Amino acid sequence: MNPLKAELLKDLEEYEWSSYSYYLGIKPSDIVNESKILSYFKDGLKGNKRKLYKKYVESGIRKI
Q: Cα–Cα distance between 13 and 6 in angstroms, integer?
């Protein structure tokens, strides 16, 4: 959230040093294993878990 707070970018997906875009499935990664984090979002399908993760992260953005 710090790059957003500092107004360095407008969308967290743009920040190259964040794993956010990997968890959303936008970028493929050999390093990030998103299964552990996505397992916290109980909605069956992986695509739905990604949507729930995005909603969770964006709820913090609105508080900035």
A: 15
Query: According to the model, what pLDDT value does residue 1 have?
Result: 81
Q: At residue 52, does pLDDT exceed 90?
A: yes
Is 12:61 a contact under the CB 8 Å cutoff? Answer: yes
Radius of gyration of the chain measured on its C-alpha atoms: 12
Distance separating alpha carbons of residues 40 and 53, to the nearest angstrom: 9
Extract the tokens encoding 4.
């957003």
Residue with tokens 């109980």: 42
Tokens of 29: 């990664």
The pTM of the full predicted model, rounded to 2 decimals, is 0.77
- What's 18's DSSP letter? -
Q: What is the spatial distance between Cα 3 and Cα 28, in angstroms, rounded to a whole number?
A: 22
